[in-house]
Amino acid sequence: MDIGAPAWDLWRTFDAVMREGSLSSAARALGLTQPTAGRHIAELETALGAGALFTRSARGLQPTETAQALAAHAEAMTAAAAALVRIASAPADAAAGVVRISASEVVGAEVLPPILADLQAAHPGLAVELLLTNTASDLLRRDADVAIRMTQPRQQALLAKSVGRIRLGLYAHRDYLARSAPVESAADLARHAVIGFDRDAASLRAINAVWPDLPSFALRTDNQLAQVAAVRAGFGIGVMQDPLAHRDPSLVPVLRETYTAYLSVWVVMHEDLRSTRRMRIVFDALVEGLTAHVKAGVERSG
Question: Which of 59, 116, 217, 266 has the fewest Cβ atoms within 10 Å of its own Cβ atom?
């Protein structure tokens, strides 16, 4: 049977079930009823003729091998469909329409809001979709239109602009330091509440590569916004970007000469989008705003 035969709405429901793990959650995400979502899966199974796509268990719907093999393709179809809707949201020469931006949790929540506020004030016809993820969005697959990345992009067909480097260091609230033992050397950290990652293997490897002598974490969370909030609340010592730490005079650098690392900041988009006016407006605004953000961190550090 031709695998291209099933209608798009069946694939969309399949992708939602793969992401959400249940018919009810997938139905809510798509604005469908649960019976409709179930019917879509049944129709897709019939159209493909490859047997069941999901099995029921105490933990919800479990994808079969066939479903797992199809998942990446369905996800790509969903991303492409969403990109088509964004592209059709306004003429290519208009300073209006939808633009999807991908950024890390910290950058998206802490750095971008004032940049986007200025952008919206200057171009009220723009609508922004903001995707917060600490993994690199695939711009070739159109997961996003414009991305902010902390490593230099390697893919071809991408327009990338470097806006500088952000220093990372250890910081703590002055109230925490006032009630705690002095921190005069790396060995002293063992007596302190250090904040770090929990199960994010990639982040754990990265931080261990630059600072292998950090002690065990007293607070473990893979959510970087939660780490920043814990430092601000006085829980202990954690990693922060210099420009963010400098906003709060109660935050104090810890062992600055010993613990220093840098993130390269890039604004990236697919080169096919450079002729679309709203994409270029957003790209340029992000470059300008992030350049100022990086520069402010360097000036304060100096």
Answer: 59
CA distances from 94 to 28, 123, 124, 125, 294 (A): 33, 10, 12, 9, 30
Rounded Cα distance between 197 and 259, Å, is 17
Q: Give per-residue pLDDT as tens, 171-182.
A: 999 999 999 999
* Phi (first) and psi of residue 140, to 5 degrees: -70, -30
pTM, whole model, 2 decimals?
A: 0.76
Q: Which two tokens stand for residue 105?
A: 């949790």
Whether the per-residue pLDDT at 300 is higher than 70: the answer is no
Q: How far is Cα 292 from Cα 160, in angstroms, rounded to an integer?
A: 17
| Spatial separation of the C-alpha atoms in residues 3 and 11, rounded to whole Å | 11
CA distance 216 to 236: 13
Q: Tell me how far CA of residue 287 lies from CA of 10, 149, 220, in angstroms.
A: 39, 12, 33
Question: Which of 149, 177, 181, 175 minimizes the C-alpha distance to 163?
Answer: 149
Q: How far apart are CA 13 and CA 74, in angstroms?
A: 9
For residue 191 the two structure tokens come to 């007596």
How many helices (H) and strands (E) are present in the chain, helices listed first?
11, 11
pLDDT at 3 over 50: no
Q: What is the pLDDT of residues 90-131, one digit of tens each?
A: 778 888 999 999 999 999 999 999 999 999 999 999 999 999
